Amino acid sequence: MLYGIRLSREQTAVVALGIDSEGRKHVLDFALGSSENVEVSRKLLSRIVTRGFSCEHRLYALLDGSDALRAAVKKFFAEAIVQRCFVNKERNLKGKLSKRHWGELSRLFRRLRSVQGIAAAEEVLGELGSFLQPINEEAFRSLHEAGDDRLALHRLEVPNTLHRSLLSTNAIENSFRHARRKLGRVTRFRADTNQAIRWLSYALLETEKGFRRIAGHDTLQHLIAALQRSEPTTESLKSAPCDLKF
To answer: Does domain 1-84+169-223 have CATH number 3.30.420.10?
Structure first.
C-alpha cells in the first residue's frame, strides 16, 4: 500500500506499507516532498528496491488513485496488479452527489466489496453505473476513469475474505491516525532540517508495534497463487524480482 500523509503546509510524506505472506504489516519506508508527485514516489520505490524488497511473483499494489504513485509502481514493477481503493472512490463520488443518494451509493459499494469473482463484480459495477449516469454525469465518468484498476482484485478470483483488507487503504490510513497521536501537537516542521524525518520515523515505528495481521490472512495463499499464474515478461524480469524479504 502506498499513501500520502500531509505533515504541514509545505511537506507531505509518501509512505509504503507492506503485507507479507502471513498477513503481517510492515512499514517499509517513506519519502518527503511537497506533494505525492512523481519524483517523490519514484524516490521512495527506488529506495525500497535498493534496500532489498523483492518478490518472485507479480506485485499487488493498493493505491488511492494518485497517478504519480501508479506511475512509480509500474516503473519498478511493470507487471504489478494495481487496485484502486474502494473507500477513497466512494468518498470521492459522495462529494459529487446530493446526500439523498449517499445511502444507495454505499449499499452498492458494500455489495461490490462482498461479491466474489469478476463476473459478479462486473454485474454490480454495471448497476452502480446505471444508478449514477442519470443523476450525475461527472460521478459516472469518475467511476469509470480508473479502468481495470477498479476490479483488479476481483479479477484474480480470490476469496472475498480478503476484500475487507485488500480493497481499501484503511490499514495505512489507520496507521497515520495512530502516528498523528504520537506526533502530538507538532504541526510545523522546518524544511531546512531533518525534523520531519525524525518525528515521522519515531511515530511510524511506534505505531508498527501495535500492528495486527490483516483480516483474511489465512486465505492469502490464494492471492499468492493467483499472482504467480502470469508468465513473466521481459519487463517484469528487469523489475525487482515480492514476498517480503528482510
So the answer is: yes
